[in-house]
Amino acid sequence: MPEYYCLDCPTEGTQEEMNNHCKKVGHTFSKIGSNIPRNFKLKPEAVRDPVSVRFDILYPAFLRKMAEIGALGAEKYGDLNWQKSRLEGGKGPVNHLMKHTTSYLLKEKYDHSELGTDRKIHLAAIAFNAMMEYWYEENS
User: Fold this and answer.
1) Which residue, among 7, 52, 48, has the nearest Cα to 27 in the 3D structure?
2) Rounded CA gap, 73 and 117, in Å?
3) What pLDDT shows up at residue 25?
4) Per DSSP, what are the bridge partners of residue 4?
5) Contact 107, 122 (CB under 8 A)
6) Dihedral over Cα of 9, 15, 20, 24: its sign
C-alpha cells in the first residue's frame, strides 16, 4: 500500500520510491492523508528579497561561547557592567584582547576554568573584548 504521493503527477509509492522519483523529475511529494492537495504549487508572490545582514552565516558555537563569556562577566560584575563607564588601561578591552591574542599564540590554556581551559576559548574572548571596544567607540 503506498504511503506517499507526488504533488505534481499521479505517482504513488513508499517514501524511498517517492524520494527517488521526485529527485529525478524535480517534483515534490507528501504523505497520504496530509491536507496538501495534488498539484499544490506555491504562488509566485511568496518570494522575499534577501536581507543584506546575514546572521545565517555566523557560527552559532562561537556566538554561544561569547555569550558564556558575557554571562560569566555578568555573574561576577553585574549585567552590562562594562557599559557603565569606559574601561581603560590594564582593565580596557584592547589590553585584554591583546592578552588573549598572546595567550592563544603561545598555546596557553584559557584562564577561566569555569568555561573550560581549551585555548580556542581565547578567540571568543578576543571577539567579546573587540565588541566592548566597538561599543565604546559608538557610544563615546
Assistant:
1) 7
2) 17
3) 85
4) 13, 31
5) no
6) positive
CB atoms within 10 A of CB 62: 13
Four-point Cα dihedral 12, 15, 20, 23, nearest 10: 90
C-alpha cell at 3: 504511503
Report the alpha-carbon distance of residue 124 to residue 107 in Å, rounded.
15
C-alpha cell at 132: 566592548
Helices (H), 10-140: 15-25, 60-77, 93-105, 121-139
The grid cell for 92 is 580596557
Say how far residue 66 (Cα) sits from the centre of its chain: 12
Instruction: State if pTM tops 0.70.
Output: no
Residue 69 CA to residue 33 CA, distance in Å, equals: 49
**Residue ranges of the domains in the chain?**
1-40, 55-139
What does the alpha-carbon distance between residue 133 and residue 15 come to, in Å, rounded to a whole number? 54
Place of cell 555573574: 75
Strand, coil or helix: 12: strand
* Coil vs helix vs strand at 30: strand
Q: Read off the pLDDT band of 32 (50, 70, 90).
A: confident
